[in-house]
């Protein structure tokens, strides 16, 4: 898809010498790629979404002295059997025994969308370890056909109880619109809900064990995080002044002052208080700490045991057919990461498969070069309609958030300056 012309950008800002180019979001000026996988040092790490503004600086993926990213280092630990997985499984069994109930009530809670990872987590806990999980889902913005079908299979073939939580659609749309226009981050409201729905529902139903899937160390967070099975409370608890929390770069009190909403409308987006969680005895764990996590193997398990199906066609922006396929907004989340950080959907998919020994780095380079910058045409009209924006507004927001140190305009097309395959515009000149 050709980009429309916009007045949001000064082309001269992208034509300066490399050391003079603007670097947005606090990203490293020098773009480096992991020597093991294809991912770059521009990849942002998980952060507190309530503090996210357009001027926020990102903590990014770290590389060691050998040029290997933390995600690859962690996966080397898994592959080289430096982790005693038998001992970890014993810890899981002890944890399950600690929380197991025999009165028919729920003894653990598994948040998930009904994708391959949540299929696997809930099924293993129920059928291998004898738990009685309640699954909870923070609803996607716009279900895809295959996404909703898989969600149904999660219960009907997988055999689980589920609560589908759908927040106020009017507010959710406005938050999503603001998040896209202000932050180029259309998934922010969804991420907020997804992170807190587990502990929030556990508190409501008196369940003390919440089990998420993989640890963020799988994707580059500090390796030390996987030495602890418990998720940091900063991801699902809140403290302080709620009315000044930011949603789409706009304070809660500004939404309320508009006269369209009350504080009650924001209840689903406000994480439980830390002390309330502690008082309730709720523990939030990663299943990936206890069991050797492999996303591709989760997919095979989900297909074999729970009726999960992949897309019949390749997902735009990548070569995969089975990852993050439930929400029509999802392709645009990855397109915005491409714009801001130079990393599209294929970069993330390929890097993960290199780390898990499914493809080589050379294969990843080829796939990323072929698919990473592909525009997600399929749901474009629905995306714009959902947020009540025009195509012009869409492209204006895209161009406003493009970082000059990552992109270069060649004739009327945007090109990446640097790529893992060394086929970037500035790579070719070196």
Q: How do the SSEs run, as a string of H and E?
A: HHEHEHEHHEEEHHEHHHHHHHEE
Rg on CA atoms, Å: 22 Å
Which strand order do you get reading across the main beta sheet? 1-2-3
Shape: globular
CA(first)-CA(last) distance: 29 Å
CATH-scheme architecture of the largest domain:
3-Layer(aba) Sandwich
| Continuous helix count | 15
Poorly predicted regions are 1-7
Return the domain count. Answer: 2
Structural class: mainly alpha
CATH topology of the largest domain: Rossmann fold
Task: Give structural notes.
This protein is mainly alpha-helical and 430 residues long. The chain has helices spanning 70-79, 85-99, 116-127, 145-156, 169-183, 188-205, 252-257, 274-280, 287-290, 295-306, 330-341, 345-355, 361-371, 380-387, 391-400; strands at residues 108-111, 133-138, 161-165, 209-212, 246-247, 250-251, 283-286, 407-410, 413-416. It has 15 helices and 9 strands. The strands form 4 sheets. The chain has a 3-stranded parallel beta sheet with strand order 1-2-3. A two-stranded parallel ribbon has the order 4-7. Strands 5-6 form a two-stranded antiparallel ribbon. The protein starts with 69 loop residues before the first helix and ends in a 14-residue tail after the last strand. Residues 1-7 have low confidence and may be disordered.
């Amino acid at each position: 898809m050709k980009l429309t012309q916009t007045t949001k950008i000064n082309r001269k800002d992208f034509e300066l010498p490399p050391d003079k180019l603007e670097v947005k979001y606090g990203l490293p000026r020098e773009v480096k790629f992991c020597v093991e996988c294809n991912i770059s040092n521009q990849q942002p790490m998980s952060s507190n979404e309530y503090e996210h503004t357009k001027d926020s600086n990102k903590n990014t993926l770290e590389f060691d002295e050998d040029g290997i990213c933390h995600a690859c280092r962690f996966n080397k630990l898994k592959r080289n059997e430096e982790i005693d997985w038998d001992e970890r499984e014993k810890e899981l069994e002890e944890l399950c025994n600690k929380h197991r109930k025999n009165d028919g009530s729920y003894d653990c809670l598994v948040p998930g969308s009904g994708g391959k990872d949540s299929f696997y987590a809930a099924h293993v806990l129920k059928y291998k370890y004898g738990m009685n999980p309640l699954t909870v889902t923070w609803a996607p913005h716009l279900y895809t056909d295959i996404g909703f079908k898989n969600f149904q299979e999660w219960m009907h073939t997988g055999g689980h109880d589920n609560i589908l939580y759908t927040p106020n659609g009017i507010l959710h749309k406005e938050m999503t619109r603001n998040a896209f226009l202000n932050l180029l981050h259309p998934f922010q409201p969804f991420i907020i809900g997804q992170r807190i729905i587990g502990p929030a529902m556990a508190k409501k139903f008196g369940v003390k064990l919440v089990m998420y899937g993989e640890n963020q160390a799988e994707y580059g967070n500090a390796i030390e995080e996987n030495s602890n099975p418990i998720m940091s409370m900063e991801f699902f608890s809140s403290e302080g002044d709620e009315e000044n929390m930011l949603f789409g770069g706009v304070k809660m009190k500004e939404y309320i002052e508009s006269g369209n909403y009350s504080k009650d409308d924001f209840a689903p987006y406000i994480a439980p208080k830390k002390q309330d969680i502690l008082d309730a005895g709720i523990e939030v764990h990663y299943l990936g700490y206890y069991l050797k996590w492999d996303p591709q193997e989760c997919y095979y398990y989900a297909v074999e045991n729970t009726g999960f199906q992949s897309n019949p066609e390749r997902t735009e922006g990548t070569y995969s057919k089975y990852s993050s396929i439930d929400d029509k907004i999802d392709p645009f989340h990855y397109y915005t990461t491409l714009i801001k950080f130079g990393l599209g959907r294929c970069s993330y998919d390929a890097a993960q498969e290199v780390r898990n020994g499914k493809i080589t780095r050379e294969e990843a380079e080829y796939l990323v070069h072929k698919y990473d910058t592909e525009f997600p045409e399929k749901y474009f009209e629905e995306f714009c309609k959902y947020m009540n924006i025009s195509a012009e507004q869409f492209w204006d927001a895209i161009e406003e958030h493009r970082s000059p140190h990552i992109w270069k305009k060649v004739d009327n097309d945007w090109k990446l300056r640097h790529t893992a395959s060394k086929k970037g515009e500035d790579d070719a000149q070196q």
